[in-house]
Amino acid sequence: MARARRVLAGLAISVPTLIAMPAHAGGHAARPAAKPIPTKAQNPAHCDPIGGWQPGDGSHDCLLPFPNNNFTVVDKKSVTGRRVQINGAAMPSDVAGKPISPTSWNRNDGFSVGSQLLTYVPGMTKNIDVGKSKMPRVDTIGRYTKPNSGVVVINAKNGKRWPVWAEVDKYTDEQSQAPRGSVEQDLMIHPAINFKPKTHYIVALRHVVKDNGKLAKSSPAFAAYRDGTAPKKDPRTDHFNHVFRKLQRAGIDRKSLYLAWDFTTASTRSTTGRLLAIRDGAFRTLGDDNLANGKVEGEAPKFQVNKVTDNPNDKVLREIQGRFTVPCYIVPACVPTGKFLLKPGLYGAPARVHVNQHAKFICIVPKVDGLLRPSLYGHGLFGGASEVEAGNVETMAYDHHMLECATNWFGMATQDVPNAVADMADLSNFDTLVDRVQQGELDFLFLAREMIHPNGFCSNAAFQAGDGSCLIDRTTAYYDGNSQGGIYGGVVCAVIPDAQRCVLGVPGQDYAVLLPRSSDYVATPDHFAYSRILDTAYPDQSQRQITLDLIQMLWDRGDPAGYAAHMAERPLRNTPKHHVLMQMAWGDHQVTNIEAETEARTMGAQLATPALVPGREGKWRDPFWGLTAMTGGTLDGSALVVYDVGPVRTVDTQVFGTNAPPRADKPNRSGVDPHGAPRSAPCGQQQKSDFLMPNGLVTAPCGGPPYFAFDWNGTDGL
C-alpha cells in the first residue's frame, strides 16, 4: 500500500499535464422559469425532464433520475428485453467540455444490480430531511416496509417492496482540489441487498421534506404526467400511466407522488459473461471443460521458477519466485494500456490474443513439518505479490501450515497506477481498467490450478522435500485476501473452480459506494489521493455521484457487486458452490462496513453475534439489519465476523481505537485505522485456519464473539 501511495504521489505533479484546467465556477447557473415537457427539438440528448432538467441546462441533471429506463431501448435480442442507450451529449463532461463516450455503457442490457438510485431535490441538503421525509436511513433500514415510507422501490412484476435506505450526498462537503460553491447534493437511495438481475423495478418518492421544513414540489414535467395534464400524444404518457397503475396496486397513490420512475437491472449474462468466457476458454486450453465437478483435469499451466531464497527469516524455509503462463485476452499482448477486443453483438466475448501472459508469482514455504495447505493471497490497493512476505501472512503460514502464493493483481497492481490515473482523467477509457482487472482475476485461477495440479508446482524441486515428495496438500486450494484482495477476492471466489473456501479480509463491494467513504480515495488539503484526479478532470461537483454510478455499470464485471449473489450457494454456470468467511474491521477507514454488510446479505452470509459490545455501535440504531445470527458456535456455510479495536482513547500519549463509522458518505478518519486488525489478530488467524480446510467450518475461537484486535480488551475507553 505504501509503495502504491509513493507512486501516486509521484504522479501528482503530472496530473495537470493530463488534464487541462481552465477556471471553473462550480455548481449551476440560476434556472430559467419552469417549462412544460420539452419537445424533441428542445431535447436532442433525450434528457429526462422529470428530474428537473430543462432546455438550456446542458448535461446538468440530464441523466437524473438514474438509473432509468428512459435511457434504454427495446431490444428483442437482449436477455432483459432492453438495451442501454445513452446519448453522448447526456453524459457528464470533463473540464474541457468533452463528454464521456457512452459506447461501453451502451453494450449493457440493463443497469448495475448495486446501483445507487439518484435524483436531485432542490432545497434538500441535510440527512435530517431524510428522516423527516419518513425514508429509511442506513441504520433504520427496516422502515422500508412502513406503509408511509417516503421512498418505495417495488418489483414491477409482483409489487414486492425491495429493502432500501436513503441519504443526502455529503461527499461534496469533502475538502479537495475541485472548486466549491453552490452545488447540488443528490438524494441517494441504496439497496440493502443487491437488486436481482434482469428485473424491472419502480421507484416512488413521497412527502419529500426540504431544509426549510416545507414539502418539495415536483418538476413541471413529472407533475404533468402525474396529474394527467401531459399531452395525450406524448410518447411517455402511456408509460407513466402504466407505472402509476403498478404503484397503485402496491398501495402507492399517484396523487401522493413527488417523483416516480422505473429501471431494469442488467442480466447475469451481461455482467459476468465476459469473465466466464475468458475463464472457460483459458481452462479449455489446458483440456478442462468441466469446472463445476471439483476435479483437476487436463494439463497444468506452464511455469518457471526463477529465484529461490532459502531461510529468509526464522519462519520461512524458502521464498520462491517465478512466472506462470496464462492465456492473454488484453489487446495488444497484455500491455499496460490494453483492453478486451470484444466480438460483435451485445454479449460479444473477449477475443484471445495469441500471445500468452507470463504472470509473476511469489510463494512462501514455512519452516514446519507435514503437508502445507495451498492458499492464494490477494494483495491490497495497487500493491503487489510481494505483500505475501508481510509479517501477518508469514505468521499465518508458519502457525497454520499454509503455503501462501501471490501474484500481481493485473489491472490494479503498482505498475498499473499510471494507467488507472489516465483512465480516471478520461472516463471514456474506464473499460480499460475493468477489462484488465478481469484478466487479473483469471491469473489467480491459473495460479490456484498450478498449486494443486500434480504436474504443477509439485513437479519442481523448490516445492519438494529432501526426499522428492511434494510439500503441498493438493486436496484443494484456498483463497485469502485483504483490502483490495478482500474486495476483488469476492469475484475470484465466485468463479474459481479449485477453491471451495475463501476468506475475504476487510471486504466490500460496489466501488461507487466505497470510494466516497474511503480514506484511500478522498483527498484532503494535506493528503493527495485519487479523488483529486477525478475531481480535477470532472470538476462539476453536482455530477460526482452520477459519474460514480455510471462507472459502476462497467465495474460490475470485475467488482463483487456483480457476483455477490453467486459467491456461495447459487453458483454461476460451470462453477462449484463456495463458502465464504468475511472478516470486517468495525469503523474501517479504507473500506466502509456498509458495503461489506450489503455483500453479506446478498450472498446469504450469517452474522457472528454478538458482533459488538454494548456502546460500540455509536449512533447506529441497527447496524446489522437483515443479517441472520449464527447459532450453535460453528457454521457449515458463509459468515460475516466483526473485529473491533475499541473506541478512540489515549494511553501515555499514544492514540488507540476508532469511532463507529460515519452514517454519511464520508471516510472515517477518527483515531487509528483498524483496517489491518482482522488479519493480524491471533483469533482471526485461528478462525481462518479452522475454515480453510476441506470440510472447514466457521468457528468461534478465543471464547467466541465479540472479537477484539490491536490489544483492546473490550472495556477500555467505553
Describe the overall structure:
Helix content is about 20%, strand content about 15%. Among the domains are: about 25-265, no CATH class; about 270-475, no CATH class. The radius of gyration is 25 Å and the shape is globular. With about 725 residues, the chain is α/β, with parallel strands linked by helices. Strands 9, 10, 11, 12, 13, 14, 15, 16, 17, 18 and 21 form an eleven-stranded mixed sheet that branches. A three-stranded antiparallel sheet has the order 3-6-5. A three-stranded antiparallel sheet has the order 4-7-8. Mean pLDDT is about 95; it is low at about 20-35 and about 175-180. Helix 9 (about 430-450) crosses helix 11 (about 490-495).
Biggest sheet architecture:
11 strands, mixed
Mean pLDDT: 94
CA(first)-CA(last) distance: 31 Å
Total number of strands: 21
Unreliable stretches:
20-34, 175-181
Query: Globular, elongated, flat, extended or rod-shaped: what is the shape?
Result: globular
Write out key terms for the chains shown.
11-stranded mixed β-sheet, 3-stranded antiparallel β-sheet
Q: What order do the helices and strands come in, and which of them pair?
A:
Layout (H helix, E strand, L loop, with lengths): L1 H11 L2 H4 L53 E3 L7 E3 L32 E3 L7 H6 L18 E5 L8 E5 L18 E5 L8 E7 L13 H8 L9 H13 L7 E8 L3 H17 L18 E8 L5 E13 L24 E14 L6 E6 L12 H10 L1 E5 L10 H9 L4 H23 L24 E6 L1 H4 L1 H7 L3 E7 L5 H4 L15 H8 L6 H12 L23 E7 L7 H11 L2 E2 L31 E6 L4 E3 L2 E3 L20 H4 L1 H10 L15 E2 L10
Parallel strand pairs: 12-13, 12-14, 14-15, 15-16, 16-18, 17-18, 18-21
Antiparallel strand pairs: 1-2, 3-6, 4-7, 5-6, 7-8, 9-10, 10-11, 11-13, 19-20
Helix pairs in contact: 6-9, 8-9, 9-11
